Amino acid sequence: MTSDSFRAMADRIRNWGRWGEDDELGTLNLITADKVRQAAALVTEGKVFPLGISIGETGPQELLFRRNPLHMMTIDGGDARSLVRIGPEWAAHPRAQEVAGFLGGDLLRFNDDFIAMHLQSASQWDALSHVYYDERMYNGYPASAVTSFGASRLSIDRVDVKGITSRGVLLDLARARGEELHCQHGEHIMPDELTAAAAAQGVEVGPGDIVLVRTGWMTKFRTTRDTSPSAGLNWRCAEWLRERDVAAVAADNSQVEDPVSDLAGNMLPMHLLCLRDMGLAFGEYWDLDALADTCAADGRWDFQLVAPPLRITGAVGSPLNPIALR
Ligand code: UVW
C-alpha cells in the first residue's frame, strides 16, 4: 500500500474552505437545527444511557505516554476535626491556620477534591488540533497555532457552540461479526463492513449524524482488564463517512482506528484524514455496551446523543460523559 492512495483520498475528502476560511467547527457544521429537532424526536421511551467510563486510577490508560487520572482529596471534614488535637508543631503551619481560621468554631464541615489527568485518559473528544501532517491542521491552520500555551485555533472549546448534540447511530461491529468479546486487533474494519452492519441493523446513516462504532474492546477491558488494542476502522472508512456527511465518529476503543496501519510510515492515517482533512472529530473510550444491548433487543439503532466537551480553554481534547437518550 502506498502513501499515494492516502494522499489521493485526502484530496478527495478534504473539507477545507467548505464552511468558510475561518471555520473551526468542521463537520459539526452539518448538525443543523432540523437535525437537532430530528434527534430530540427519537426520545420516546425515556431511557438514558451514560456512555462515559469511570474517571479514576483503574481506567484503561496505563500505556506509553499516558496515565490513568489521579484523584486526590484536598480537604475533608476530618481536617477540621483534627484541629482540636493539633499539636504545637502544626499550629504554625499556614494550611492548618487557614483551615482553623475558616472552619474553627463553625458548624460547617466539607470535602473538596482535585484531579490530575491527561485530557485523553477517559471517554473523550479529540479536538481538530489533536493531529496534523505537512505542518497544517484542519482548514489549513498552521501547526504553529498550537504551542505550550495551548491551541489558539481548533481547540476543543471552539466547538461548544454545537452542543455537541445530534442524532446518534450505533453500528455494532462486534455483534455483526458474531464475536463474543471483541473484534481482533489487526483485522481492520473496512467500509463494506460498515455498510453491511448498517443494512443488517436496518439503520441509515445520513448528514449530521454522529456514528458510534462498537468493536467490543470495552467489553473485553471490563471483563479481563486487558488493554491491548482491538480492531478499529481502516483509513478507507474516512471516505465512507465523507460520502454520508457524518458529523463525528466515536468508538468504544482507544483510537477509533486500528493502531496496526497498513500504510508504512503512517501510524494513524484515519486520524489524519478525519481530523485534519475532513474536520471530523473523534470520540474514544466510549462505553457502548448497555446501549447496544438495548438497541439489539428492539432493533432500533438511533437515538438522541448529547455529548458536550468541557470548555477547557486551548485544549486539544476533552473528557466527557456522553448521554444517549431513547
Ligand atoms: C493519539 O494517540 C495520537 O491519538 P488518540 O488519543 O486520538 O488515539
What integer value in Å does the Rg equal? 22 Å
Sequence of strands across the biggest β-sheet: 1-13-11-7-8-9-10-4-12
Number of domains: 2
Helix/strand-derived class? alpha+beta
Number of strands: 13
Average residue-wise pLDDT: 92
Ends: how far apart?
42 Å
By CATH, the superfamily of the largest domain comes out as Putative cyclase
Along the chain, the helix and strand elements come as HHEEHHHEEEEEHHEHHEHEHEEE
Helix percent band:
25-40%
For this structure, the CATH topology of the largest domain is Glucose Oxidase, domain 1
What ligands are attached or bound here?
Answer: acetylphosphate
Instruction: Specify the overall morphology.
Output: globular
Figure out the total of helices: 11
- Tell me about the largest β-sheet: 9 strands, mixed
Structure described in brief:
The chain is of the alpha+beta class and 326 residues long. 28% of the residues lie in helices and 16% in strands. InterPro entries: KFase/CYL (IPR007325), KFase_sf (IPR037175).
What does this structure look like?
By secondary structure, the protein is of the alpha+beta class. The protein has two domains: 269 residues, Glucose Oxidase, domain 1, CATH 3.50.30.50; 47 residues, no CATH class. It contains eleven helices and 13 strands. The strands form three sheets. A nine-stranded mixed beta sheet has the order 1-13-11-7-8-9-10-4-12, with helices on both faces. The longest helix has 11 residues. The protein is globular and about 70 Å long. The protein starts with a helix and ends with a strand. The model has no long low-confidence stretch (mean pLDDT 92).
